[in-house]
Amino acid sequence: MKIAIVGTGYVGLVSAACFAELGHTVCGVDIDAAKIRKLKEGISPIYEPGLEELIVSGLKSGRLTFTTELTEALPGCSIVFCAVATPPGEGYKADLRAVFTVAKTVAERTESDIVFVTKSTVPVGTGKKCEELITETLKARGATFRIPVVSNPEFLREGMAVPDTLMPDRIVVGVNHDEGAKELMEELYRPITRVGKPIVFMTRESAEIVKYASNSFLATKISFINMLTELTEKTEANIRDVAMGIGLDNRIGPRFLHAGIGYGGSCFPKDVKALLATGKELGVPMDIIEATDRINFRQRQRFFDRILKSLPARATVGIWGLSFKPKTDDMREAPSLDLLPALVRNGHTVRAYDPAAMETARPLLPKEIVYVDDLFAAADKADAVVLLTEWDIFRGVDLNELKRRMKGADLFDGRNVYEPKEVVRASLIYHGIGIC
Ligand SMILES: NC(=O)c1ccc[n+]([C@@H]2O[C@H](COP(=O)([O-])OP(=O)(O)OC[C@H]3O[C@@H](n4cnc5c(N)ncnc54)[C@H](O)[C@@H]3O)[C@@H](O)[C@H]2O)c1
Questions:
Q1: Which stretches of the chain drop beneath a pLDDT of 70?
Q2: Does any ligand 1 atom lie closer than 6 A to the CB of residue 83?
Q3: CA-CA distance, 428 to 379, in Å (whole number)?
Q4: Chain centre to alpha carbon of residue 159
Q5: What CATH architecture applies to the domain 2-202?
Q6: N or C: which terminus of the chain has fewer CB atoms within 10 Å of its end residue's CB?
Q7: To test ligand 1's pocket by mutation, which of 38, 266, 273 has the most ligand atoms within 8 angstroms of CB?
Q8: Which residue in 272, 270, 266, 268 sits closest to 256, CA to CA?
Q9: Nearest CA to ligand 1 atom 15
Q10: 193, 171 in Cβ contact below 8 A?
Q11: Cα–Cα distance for residue pair 435/400, rounded to 1 Å
């Protein structure tokens, strides 16, 4: 099948490369000309394991192309995906301007019937608004093409985006009374459903809600365990044991019960807040989600206050990890964006190392930060080292070597990855979260 994907960011680019890998013919469209130039040369503009290889093989096979011109991409396509960003707008409502621009442009430029699919995360009711906009635009140009609007939310995790796209837990498709569009979506995803992955059809509105509900539920699990860290810190309890004790219950499960400095990234914080905004708009209380958001903010602040209070004047602080999570260079809502400026403001010297995100981080962080190209170099003569992102390379670090390189002895473990006993054995002082 021939398709176009508008927006070649983390979602659109991975989808484009994976659909091409699965045998479809895909054209990726983006307004960012520099990005498209790189892509045409087979260079991935983002760090995502396995992605560049797929781009190169897609280009070679001729099934994957890129352009800045939507008009070039549309001819012959059965489906056009909208995968542009929906960042927080006024009052944390999702900013849908890019989605509406794409919907309108498709209606202005298409010369045949085409299914318009929103892969971007959009609040309930957006599909209906796109449909109205498309109908209006077609009417204005006197065209009678059929452009049904389908919702197909994306659930990939950055760092795991390629396997998540090729082998998703489920594919959710929201279609309202359009058998033709439903059949096309079935055909598109057949290479994945054929190997046993489920595709579930529902109304467009249900599919739109599923996306926000999934992310908010996962965020709530994280905030739930983080809420308990305040309790375990004041008692003889250990949050790891508590999480294990809870998670072994099959009804609950162990995942997303890992205490730490809270969630960040391009999705959880914005989607939680956008669901709150939708609730407010429709007069529906969202008490649990409100608490999830509040706890996440407090958790990060509590840990950062502990660090700032413990440091001597004009300290040197080694930072391990800048991206919001491992295996990505994405800096959106990363904890480092709060902590590092606070350290600099307080007169401290910051030496930072991240395996992939230093280039994306640099323009977002104070110019005083010293970037180094190895984890021990970040710890050199440091009064304290703070782990912010649990990249594998930090997990297995030689703690004795770390102690030798440092001036002080404080190790702040923002992700609870180290064994406190081992840290103490290396003559370091362990500061975890929820561990007494
Ligand atoms: N990043 C994730 O892990 C993830 C996971 C699931 C869902 N989502 C959702 O998917 C959507 C996209 O997220 P992302 O992280 O890929 O965003 P992104 O910022 O990485 O990419 C968006 C791309 O769209 C392009 N763009 C913007 N306006 C355009 C236009 N009018 N025409 C063509 N291109 C345009 C931008 O240049 C950019 O390359 C968002 O709604 C997000 O919430 C993201």
A1: none
A2: yes
A3: 13
A4: 9
A5: 3-Layer(aba) Sandwich (3.40)
A6: C
A7: 266
A8: 268
A9: 10
A10: yes
A11: 22
Question: CA-to-CA distance for 285 and 271, rounded, in angstroms?
Answer: 16
350 in contact with ligand 1, CB cutoff 6 A: no
Residue among 5, 6, 10, 96 to mutate when testing ligand 1 (max atoms within 8 A of CB)? 10
* DSSP letter string, 5-53: EE--SHHHHHHHHHHHHTT-EEEEE-S-HHHHHHHHTT--SS--TTHHH
Question: Is 267 an active-site residue?
Answer: yes
Q: What is the rounded CA–CA span in Å between residue 393 and residue 354?
A: 10
> Which tokens in the block code for residue 165?
């796209």
What is d(CA 187, CA 22) in angstroms, rounded to the nearest whole number? 12
Q: Kindly give, in sequence order, each residue whose CB lies less than 8 Å from that of residue 237, ignoring residues fewer than 6 positions away.
A: 231, 436
User: What backbone phi and psi angles, to 5 degrees, belong to 39?
Assistant: -60, -40
Question: Where in the chain are all domains bearing CATH 3.40.50.720?
Answer: 2-202, 203-436
Task: Spell out a b/e string for 305-329, using b for 16 or more CB atoms within 10 Å of the CB, else e.
Answer: eebbeebeeebbbbbbbbbbbbbbb
Question: What single letter denotes the amino acid at residue 138?
Answer: L
> What's the confidence (pLDDT) of residue 266?
86
State pTM to two decimals.
0.94
The strand ranges marked E within 120-257 are: 149-151, 171-174, 199-202
- From CA 85, how far away is CA 94, in angstroms rounded? 9
Query: CB of 36 within 8 A of CB of 30?
Result: yes
How confident is the model over 157-200, as pLDDT tens digits? 999 999 999 999 999 999 999 999 999 999 999 999 999 999 99
The verdict on domain 203-436 having CATH code 3.20.20.150 is no
pLDDT tens-digit map of 404-432: 999 999 999 999 999 999 999 999 999 99
Q: Around Cβ 187, how many Cβ atoms within 10 Å?
A: 14
At residue 272, the pLDDT reads 97
